[in-house]
Design brief:
The chain has 125 residues and is an alpha+beta fold. Helix content is 32%, strand content 37%. Strands 1-2-3-4 form a four-stranded antiparallel beta sheet.
């Protein structure tokens, strides 16, 4: 239900790209696919992978932020700590990937701190 509401709102604002289309575009991107295939756990190990797509608005600029995260347990009790992350920013009007950020074995806190900094660092890690 929430997805339908988000997609309807995106259509009302004139976006050519819906949230689900942005997720699909990110997952079909060759560079992102390569990162996920080479860095995320093998599917037979049943990794805990989540995706999130949200619309970011800053200074009259909109972009879809697509995050695909694999949570890696630190102990046998399954407590997560480390993550592999693919973060892709997509222009909702031009349907172009603006930025890619790939991170291996990063803690959630480190990731949040990284996002607070301006993007002057390289777009790949």
């Amino acid at each position: 239900m929430k997805r339908k509401i988000r997609e309807q709102k995106s259509k009302e604002h004139g976006f050519l790209l819906t949230a689900s289309a942005a997720l699909r575009m990110a997952l079909e991107d060759a560079k992102t696919g390569h990162f996920i295939k080479t860095n995320f756990s093998d599917p037979q190990h049943k990794p805990h992978i989540i995706s999130r797509t949200r619309l970011s608005r800053k200074n009259q600029h909109c972009r879809w932020i697509v995050e695909v995260k694999e949570e890696i347990p630190l102990s046998l009790n399954g407590k997560s700590g480390l993550m592999n992350i693919a973060r892709i920013e997509i222009d909702p009007f031009d349907r172009k990937i603006l930025r890619r950020l790939y991170l291996n074995y990063i803690l959630e806190g480190e990731y949040q701190e990284l996002l607070k900094r301006p993007f002057s660092q390289p777009s790949h890690r």
